[in-house]
UniProtKB/TrEMBL annotation:
The keyword Oxidoreductase applies. InterPro entries: Ald_Oxase/Xan_DH_a/b, Ald_Oxase/Xan_DH_a/b_sf, Ald_Oxase/xanthine_DH-like, AldOxase/xan_DH_MoCoBD1, AldOxase/xan_DH_MoCoBD2, AldOxase/xan_DH_Mopterin-bd_sf, Xanthine_DH_Mopterin-bd_su. It comes from the Bacteria. PANTHER family: XANTHINE DEHYDROGENASE (PTHR45444:SF3). The keyword Oxidoreductase applies. Gene3D superfamilies: Aldehyde oxidase/xanthine dehydrogenase, a/b hammerhead, Aldehyde oxidase/xanthine dehydrogenase, molybdopterin binding domain. It comes from Janthinobacterium tructae. This is Xanthine dehydrogenase molybdopterin binding subunit. Belongs to the xanthine dehydrogenase family. Its cofactor is Mo-molybdopterin; Mo-molybdopterin cytosine dinucleotide; FAD; [2Fe-2S] cluster. Residues 31-138 form the Aldehyde oxidase/xanthine dehydrogenase a/b hammerhead domain. Its EC number is 1.17.1.4. Keywords: 2Fe-2S, Iron, Iron-sulfur, Metal-binding, Oxidoreductase.
Length: 781
């Protein structure tokens, strides 16, 4: 045993990582014993707040009478913008996001006042009694209207490479068109909530359902006009975040804290589902205009896309979202000559924000739509057009540099797609479906195979950092705290596995605590799929330092060399001695060895020039592909997903059970986005789909009976945490296959000679319209 412990040797003898361990809270979830913010026992004297919301999409407030609100049963206080002690802003990047608006309202649902009452119900009832007079202004509701009016929250962005114009003019074939892809409500099961508890002096403890405790701390400090060290934000877990609690938990944290600071009493603000949907931003819908030139084989020679998003009334995270869309338009394809534009349309709607994929899915779906059109025009299988346009293999020169200048060194899309092509039996099923459709006049089947590539890292470079704190207690038990937040994705399980692995312990010996700004400072949001990557590395750094101190101490006691001390099976193996971990820890404590440590990680090698939109924004890429088979009823537009096969590259997965769950969840969530989930605003500018009664997320019965999800055997070429790859967001692109399978089924109505004009979401109504358009074109031809 007296040889140095390399990471390989450690992995060979001890593997707390790579195991399909259940989610650390799985039992608590199932038993209903997992504590969410609203489950925390309320302190005596706790009050409840509700927000008074604007009823107009764009208007000046000419008069406001809140006397009925003040006089309503149980009401303790009402606050408007001028009552805010500090800065009236909760915008994450640009400061254009008032907590409470004063003169100008910019969307239906914008908060105007806070009412505080003895109960949640009393506060909500009182909020409705406001008398507000408005002078209405013209409202802009859609990205198309924003584009026409040149109404943007930020200057438009552009990325070019090569000579798009020349390549387009000489291309043998061109395709031009427009596409609209709708937005999506995050629909976390636990809504937005904050519980603010005043502490002595200017202190405030905020228990908040948030992906970004540090940002909540800053916003609350600014709103109260105090320094950050007075504010502590804590989050044990969220009942889902999906990006919706990256920046937009701030309004709720700030409003609860303002009321709590004013009243010097604990105040809870829990959004009702309808209010949550009316007030908070969603996934950005995108409107695209595209022009692509290609050759007789279907190889893309020139690609131009002009994307306009519905940013809403303020910037929020729309800039980084649009940047990610620009950097994902290429998806898995080498595009030599491009002109990629994105503009964030300022509209009189909720301020749209992060949602799983963060613009990546919106960028990539456009090129997939184009490829689908190219294939149909050339009467070729779309998979063949995709294969032809893939980035080159890693050992092939050229064809491996993205439009933004990052060289791809980890491309596995060829191997991954080849594996899925065989395991899904794609070619055989394609022929079977053609035969089925020939014989079936009403029910039509469709099949599609779509690939994905997703860049991993925050595209804002400085956010790629994380910290952790590991404590080893004298009894040998271990506590880890890190800057990441648990939203169901399993970050705590993965970080616990990393720490257990480093110290050679069973997972049961490690516990993770709530995320807490007083433990790890200046954290980034748990977002961009980097949570486990960043915090796993930081926790590993902390655990390693403790391990090294313990190894040095063990050598003092038992002799040998520190580099040869091994930690596994809850024991320390040193110079022929086998000592229980807890025993060595006990001795180390008495010898005054530091048994806790901090850890830090910053992703190396990243760069980004926002002006030219070039650099090396991503640490590595994750890959995947899916095949979907659907059947569409061409009389009603109803459809069903019959079978889905998905293959995802999670590198050396830290936890295959959790990762498979993430892939399945993202697949179904993305399918909802592209099919049934429709956001609809009425002529008065009010979002009418603000509850599950009108907004249809997928249910268990929408999952395919035949669902074959697998992880692709791979190893990250980057030195990521145990060579794993991120899994949170990228699989949201897998259900592109469902959308294009539906389009394929519709296309069969016209014997694949007509391009079905299908926008997303492909609701039954949208499907029926496309079927009728294909039929009409067939009659005309
Ligand atoms: N999974 C669950 N169960 N709940 C969530 O809210 N959010 C997704 C994804 N998977 C989410 C989820 C989003 S938007 C991101 S960015 C990642 O998880 C964040 O977690 P990670 O970086 O730790 O993987
Ligand atoms: N960039 C990114 C970001 O790629 N993903 C994110 O979630 C994000 N959030 C804030 C700023 N930049
Ligand atoms: Mo995820 S959209 O990056 O929170």
């Amino acid at each position: 045993m007296n040889h140095p412990v390399t990471p390989e040797l450690q992995a060979a003898t001890w593997a707390a990582v790579g195991k399909p361990s259940p989610h650390e809270s799985a039992q608590l979830h199932v038993l209903g014993q997992a504590t969410y913010t609203d489950d925390i026992a309320e302190l005596q004297g706790t009050l409840h707040a509700a927000l008074g919301l604007s009823q107009k999409p764009h208007a000046r407030i000419t008069a406001m009478d809140l006397s009925a609100v003040r006089g309503s049963q149980g009401v303790v206080a009402v606050y408007t913008a001028q009552d805010i002690p500090g800065t009236n802003d909760c915008g994450p990047i640009i400061h254009d996001d008032p907590i409470l608006t004063a003169e100008l309202v910019q969307y239906v649902g914008q908060p105007i006042f806070i009412v505080v009452a003895d109960t949640h119900d009393h506060a909500r009832r009182a909020a409705r009694l406001a008398q507000v007079s408005y002078e209405e202004l013209p409202a802009i509701m859609t990205p198309q209207a924003a584009k026409a009016a040149q109404s943007y929250v930020l200057p438009p962005m552009q990325l070019t490479r090569g000579n798009y114009q020349a390549a387009f003019e000489t291309a043998p074939h061109v395709v031009k068109g427009q596409l609209y892809v709708g937005g999506q409500e995050q629909f976390y099961l636990e809504g937005q909530i904050s519980y603010a508890i005043p502490k002595e002096a200017q202190g405030m403890l905020v228990l908040c359902s948030t992906q970004h405790p540090s940002e909540m701390q800053h916003v609350v400090a600014h709103a109260l006009g105090v320094h950050s060290h007075n504010i502590t934000v804590e989050c044990r877990r969220m009942g889902g975040g999906f990006g919706g609690k990256e920046s937009q938990s701030a309004l709720w944290a700030a409003a609860a804290s303002i009321a709590a600071a004013k009243l010097k009493r604990p105040v809870k603000l829990r959004a009702d589902r309808d209010d949550d949907m009316l007030v908070t931003g969603k996934r950005h819908c995108f409107y695209y205009e595209y022009e692509v030139g290609y050759d007789d084989d279907g190889k893309i020679l020139a690609a131009k896309v002009d994307m306009t998003t519905r940013a809403g009334y303020s910037a929020d995270l729309s800039g980084p979202v649009a940047t990610r869309a620009v950097c994902h338009f290429d998806n898995t394809y080498y595009l030599s000559d491009v002109d990629i534009r994105a503009a964030c349309g300022k509209t009189n709607t909720q301020s749209n924000t992060a949602f799983r994929g963060f613009g990546g899915p919106q960028g990539a779906i456009a090129i997939e739509y184009v490829i689908d059109e190219i294939a149909r025009h050339l009467q070729r299988d779309a998979l063949d057009i995709r294969l032809l346009n893939f980035y080159g293999r890693n050992d092939v020169e050229g064809r491996n540099v993205t439009p933004y200048g990052q060289t791809i060194v980890d491309n596995v899309i060829h191997e991954l797609v080849a594996e899925l092509e065989v395991s899904s039996d794609y070619r055989t099923r394609r022929r079977a479906i053609d035969a089925y459709n020939e014989a079936s006049p009403i029910l039509k089947k469709g099949l599609a195979f779509t690939p994905l590539k997703f860049g991993i890292a925050f595209n804002v470079t400085h956010l790629n950092q994380a910290g952790a704190l590991v404590h080893v207690y004298v009894d040998g038990s271990v506590l880890v705290n890190h800057g990441g937040t648990e939203m169901g994705q399993g970050i705590n399980t993965k970080v616990m596995q990393v720490v257990a692995h480093e110290l050679g312990l069973d997972l049961e010996r490690v516990r993770a605590t709530a995320t807490d700004t007083s433990k790890v400072a200046n954290t980034s949001a748990t977002a961009a799929s980097t949570g486990a990557d960043l915090n796993g590395k930081a926790a590993q750094d902390a655990a390693r330092q403790i391990r090294e101190r313990l190894a040095d101490y063990a050598v003092k006691l038992y002799g040998g060399e520190a580099a040869c001390v091994r930690f596994f099976d809850n024991h320390i193996h040193v110079n022929g001695h086998v000592v229980p971990f807890a025993e060595l820890v006990q001795k180390a404590y008495l010898a005054r060895v530091q048994l806790w440590s901090d850890g830090f990680y910053a992703t190396p090698g990243l760069s980004w020039d926002a002006k030219t939109m070039t650099g090396h924004p991503f640490s590595y890429y994750a890959y995947g592909a899916a095949v979907a088979e659907v059947v569409v009823d061409t009389l009603t537009g109803e459809w069903k997903l019959l079978r889905a096969d998905a293959l995802y590259d999670a590198g050396e997965s830290l936890n295959p059970a959790i990762d498979l769950g993430q892939v399945e969840g993202a697949f179904i969530q993305g399918m909802g986005w592209l099919t049934t989930e429709q956001l609809w605003w009425n002529a008065a500018g009010k979002l009418m789909t603000h509850a599950p009664s009108t907004y249809k997320i997928p249910g268990i019965s929408d999952c395919p009976e035949d669902f074959r999800v697998k992880l692709f055997q791979n190893r990250n070429v980057e030195d990521s945490i145990h060579r794993s790859k991120a899994v949170g967001e990228p699989p949201l692109l897998l259900p592109f296959s469902v959308f294009f399978a539906i389009r394929d089924a519709i296309s069969s109505v016209g014997h694949h000679a007509v391009q079905p004009p299908l926008n997303a979401p492909a609701t039954s109504e949208e499907i029926l319209k496309a079927v009728m358009a294909v039929q009409a074109a067939g009659v005309a031809a």
